[in-house]
Design goal:
It is a single chain. The protein has about 325 residues and is α/β, with parallel strands linked by helices. The protein has a single domain (about 15-335), classed as Aldolase class I (TIM Barrel, Alpha-Beta Barrel), CATH 3.20.20.70. The chain is about 30% helix and about 15% strand. It is built from 10 helices and 12 strands. It has helices at about 50-60, 80-85, 90-95, 110-115, 130-140, 145-155, 175-185, 215-225, 285-290, 295-305; strands spanning about 15-20, 65-70, 100-105, 120-125, 160-165, 190-195, 225-230, 240, 250, 265-270, 275, 285. Strands 7-8-9-6-5-4-3-2-1-10-11-12 form a 12-stranded mixed β-sheet. α7 (about 175-185) links the parallel β5 and β6 (about 190-195). α1 packs parallel to α2 (about 80-85). The longest helix is centred in the N-terminal third of the chain and has 13 residues, at about 50-60. The chain is globular. The structure holds iron/sulfur cluster. Iron/sulfur cluster (SF4) binds near residues 30, 73, 104, 139 and 332.
């Protein structure tokens, strides 16, 4: 089935990519993302699995052909596989071209096979270090072995993995070559994400570890030959090909504006707010519309209204995330 884009914004961009957060919860407490004692949203505020399905289906009916499921950590949402199973029906009809997710990998060993079975072909895994001790330091609650087991399970199930690594000076600087090689050996792509100098996150102000990707890239060229590619995904990543290994490496710098013209995406939070731009805070409450109306038309109208107000560009400042109440999504979950 050919899904004709129907969501065209005022700058003539077709919106074909929806990122959906299914939970604000996570089983890790990465120091740059969450404080140790998080207050999560009350359950009633979250879209139910049925509501999530309805929302996504509404977008798909309007030409969205790529869905990325995010969190928090999407795989810790109770019964999330019910949602994946159900929404995968749109893959079968051809209306949806790609269903994917961004995960911290902790639950992948449990779900990899099922995810592959329902048609998930690619997954992004956020992973900042291959050192067990450093891993528990940065994630606070995470265990590296569990994540590696999940990655292996996904690869064994035939799923392609892209690793998203936040570049942190004095933290994973010394692992640069190791991470690149590790990914190359497993035929995994890799994206480095730059963070800006950070202020206080919860009780953490320790991570003042800004490492510009320009420097990281220069370091890579000491070992490898990098060839620029003109690959565009409509997102913030810029890609190079590593001549010696054939792998693709992406770079995401938070302040970059160079992808706005080709932006094809919007994002929906787990409480049903639609953010028309990844880097701006304007949003529309779709949950209210969904809960007030049993018919689908008012929701479709609200979606079209929101898209008609999609701003031309953004003013990224991912580093200043507010942690009170709902967490703003971290760049590692933006993932290009
Ligand atoms: S960065 Fe990702 S894995 Fe870490 S606490 Fe935030 S949501 Fe969880």
């Amino acid at each position: 089935m050919n899904n004709i884009p129907k969501l065209i914004d005022p700058f003539n961009r077709a919106i074909t990519y929806l990122r959906v957060s299914v939970t604000d919860r996570c089983d890790f407490r990465c120091v740059y993302c969450m404080s140790e004692n998080m207050n999560f949203l009350p359950k009633a505020d979250l879209l139910t699995l049925e509501e999530l399905d309805k929302m996504c289906t509404a977008f798909i009916s309007q030409g969205v052909e790529k869905l990325r499921i995010t969190g928090g950590e999407p795989l810790v949402r109770r019964n999330i596989m019910e949602f994946f199973n159900s929404i995968s029906r749109h893959l079968k009809t051809g209306a949806l071209k790609e269903l994917t997710l961004t995960t911290n990998g902790s639950q992948l060993h449990r779900f990899a096979e099922q995810l592959a079975e329902i048609g998930i072909k690619r997954i992004n895994v956020s992973l900042d270090t291959l050192n067990e001790e450093k891993f528990s330091q940065i994630t606070r609650w995470g265990r590296l072995v569990q994540v590696l087991k999940g990655i292996d399970a996904a690869l064994a199930a035939g799923i392609k993995i892209k690793i998203n690594t936040v570049a942190l000076k004095d933290f994973n600087e010394d692992e640069l070559e190791k991470i690149v090689k590790w990914c190359a050996n497993r035929k995994m792509d890799l994206t480095f994400i730059e963070v800006m100098p950070m202020g206080d996150i919860g009780n953490e102000n320790r991570l003042n570890q800004y490492w510009p990707l320009s420097d990281l890239r220069k370091r890579l060229t000491k070992t490898w030959t990098l060839k620029d590619t003109d690959e565009q995904t409509g997102g913030p990543a810029r890609y190079v090909r590593v001549y010696e290994t054939g792998q693709k490496i992406g770079f995401i710098t938070p302040m970059t504006h160079n992808f706005c013209e080709s932006c094809n995406r919007v994002r929906l939070t787990c409480t049903g707010e639609l953010y028309q731009c990844l880097g701006q805070e304007d949003q529309v409450d779709l949950r209210k519309v969904l809960r007030k109306n049993s018919e689908i038309e008012p929701l479709l109208e609200a979606i079209h209204n929101a898209i008609s107000k999609k701003p031309k560009g953004h003013d990224f400042d991912y580093s200043r995330q507010s942690i009170s109440g709902q967490m703003s999504r971290h760049m590692s979950h933006t993932g290009g």
